[in-house]
Amino acid sequence: MGDRWRRMRAIARKDAEEVRSQPALLLPAAAMVLGLAIPALVVLLAIPRLTGESLAEAGFTDAGDAAAAMGFEAGRLTDEGLAQAFLLQQFLVFSLLVPIMGSLSLASQGIIGEKQARALEPLLATPIRTGELLAGKVMTPFALSMALLAATFLLYLVAMRVWGQPGVWLTLLGPRTLLLFLVLGPLVSLMGLLAAAIISSRVNDARTAQQWGGLLVLPLTALFVVQLTGQFLLGMGALLVTALVLAGACAVLLAVGVRVFQRETILMRWK
Amino acid sequence: MVETRALTRRFGDRLAVDGLTLDVRAGEVVSLLGPNGAGKTTTFRMLASLLMPTSGEATVAGTRLTASTAGAMRSRVGLLTEAPGLWERLSVRRNLLTYADLHGVADPGARVAAVMDAVGLADRADDRAGALSKGLKQRVALARAVVHDPQVVLLDEPTSGLDPAGARQVRDLIRQLREDGRAVLVSTHNLAEAEELSDRIAVLDTRLLAFDTPRRLREERRAAVVAIEVDGDAAAWLRLVERLAGASASADGAVLTLRVPDHDTVPDLVAALVNAGARVRRVEPKHATLEDAYLALVRDDG
User: Fold this and answer.
1) pTM, to two decimals
2) Residue of B33, B28, B20, B41 whose CA lies nearest to B1
3) Among A35, B83, B159, B288, which is most exposed with the fewest C-beta within 10 angstroms?
4) Which residues pair with B17 in a beta bridge?
């Protein structure tokens, strides 16, 4: 285990230094953090202040009911607070785009970078096992995409603590949010990483890989849109089912990824 | 140190390496010569446990290559790939430290400092690999190939694309590897380099065509090359001698150069030329070069 860990850590550390040497690699995912959080905070906090019409007055009383149905204690929050808590939860689902895009961007760049540098053959001539190489290659993008997701969470937490209705920020520490950030976030990140590894084995350009990987965003976007229409409420039960589906998808992608990461496959077919 | 027996690798219907049997001893440099597609890189990849043979055996540093021993074998073999394959945004030191970690080197910092010193890169340790010249990158790649102190070193076209000074530095490093007692297998298209560096040379064209010292490879071909000087333009007699000699010939001014299958045919050839009206001024067995020997081997095989 010691040698294995050392080899995986060597790859992860090398990748981290490569990202450090070109911080622009992180820009798309970092921009996405702001690109998702700012519109959400504008809707939740800025527009009611600018228009002088609260969310509750703007017809979000149903939202308040839904928030109560999601487990937020109506007695502790004002009507406006319940409406904010409900809408906040809808936007949080969209935050899962951050780890997906971060993983896709960094992992495809990392793997295709090795192909372009023709660094895979000397790498494979070391005692590293192909599973260790796959694990090592996903460690840095995974850690960075989790850091970006944590940044998103902190951004919402601070904004709601400072400008939100009293107590709304505490709903971010509830089980639904934690399930989103601690379970679904890592799962979608892993899915993005494995997808990037598989796609990167077939294409020679990081952008192409990212474009193909971008298809992963579609189901999440659909979920978000359906939620906003009010036809479907993504409660705890639905999130748990989603987590199980994602875990299954990750297992399938892992099996494919391990096959793709065989030495002879990499040497003979990764052109 | 390296021993192969009937080593064979097939890719689908294509035979890349056919029944290769050779050996490389400790403290010996063996060059692998052959045209493009002859199976040199495939042979290297098998000896570096990157590809499994379809049949046959390979024993490297005392371990027979199997799927289960491949990992252990890789720690005893250093491979210089055709392209340096460096991480260009990282420093020379970080490139080498990563490989030292991958090989489980006990004191990576000290070992990396030692190999950088050995290849003359100590003062460039913190430079980005991408900022180095091609020759320096090749030295980094060479340092990477030996960072784990392997007993066997495989060098795939180590001087390809280097300027004469860079190529010379790399050749000096290869000699140093031999002096350190490593078994070194070098693939090259540079015949002069192979002759200068190698203790033995293997000529490969999917199968092994010859395996001997450079001197013996040359000598075996010596009697078969003859220069005949005639009066006038030698090209006028080219067709005649090709028909009579049953081999290739070339004309350069007044000199015909023939590759004949057997030295005994030369008097008959000269007589035929004289009978046909040529004035023969000089007949000289030519000192065959390694290039003559190599080309003859590859042509005969083709």
Assistant:
1) 0.79
2) B28
3) A35
4) B9
Range of the domain at B252: 219-301
Question: Which of these three, B217, B242, B257, is where a domain ends?
Answer: B217
Mind listing the pLDDT tens digit for each residue in B11-60? Answer: 988 999 999 999 999 999 999 999 888 899 999 999 999 899 999 999 99
Domain count, chain B: 2
Q: Tell me: the pLDDT tens digits for A78-119?
A: 778 888 888 888 888 888 888 888 888 888 777 888 888 888
* CB atoms near residue A151 (< 10 Å): 16
Give B73-76 contacts, CB < 8 A, sequence gap 24+: B73/B48, B73/B49, B74/A125, B74/A126, B74/A127, B74/B48, B74/B49, B75/A126, B75/A127, B75/B103, B75/B104, B75/B148, B75/B150, B76/B150, B76/B151, B76/B152
Spatial separation of the C-alpha atoms in residues B16 and A268, rounded to whole Å: 13
- As given in the structure block, the two tokens for residue A172 are 């971010």
- Which positions 42-71 of B are in contact with A (Cβ < 8 Å)? 45, 48-52, 71
Sequence-ordered strand ranges (E) for chain B = 2-11, 14-24, 28-33, 55-60, 63-64, 77-80, 152-156, 183-187, 200-205, 207-212, 225-230, 249-252, 255-259, 280-285
Q: Are B152 and B186 in contact (CB under 8 A)?
A: no
Q: Are B153 and B86 found together in one domain?
A: yes
Last residue of a domain, one of B163, B184, B217: B217
Neighbour tally for A236: CB within 10 Å: 13
- Test B98 with A22 for CB contact under 8 angstroms: no
Is residue B6 domain-shared with residue B31, that is, in the same domain?
yes
Q: In this structure, are B191 and B264 located in the same domain?
A: no
Give the span between the Cα atoms of A9 and B102, in whole angstroms: 9
Contact (CB<8Å) B79/A122: yes
| Structure-token match 């109560």, residue found | A68
Tell me which residue in A117, A125, A127 faces B86 most closely, judged by beta carbons: A117
Chain B neighbours among A 99-158 (CB < 8 Å)?
117-129
Under 8 Å CB-to-CB from A268, ≥6 apart: which residues?
A: B11
- Phi and psi of B8, rounded to 5°? -135, 140
Q: What is the predicted ipTM?
A: 0.80
Which SS3 state, helix, strand or coil, does residue B219 take? helix
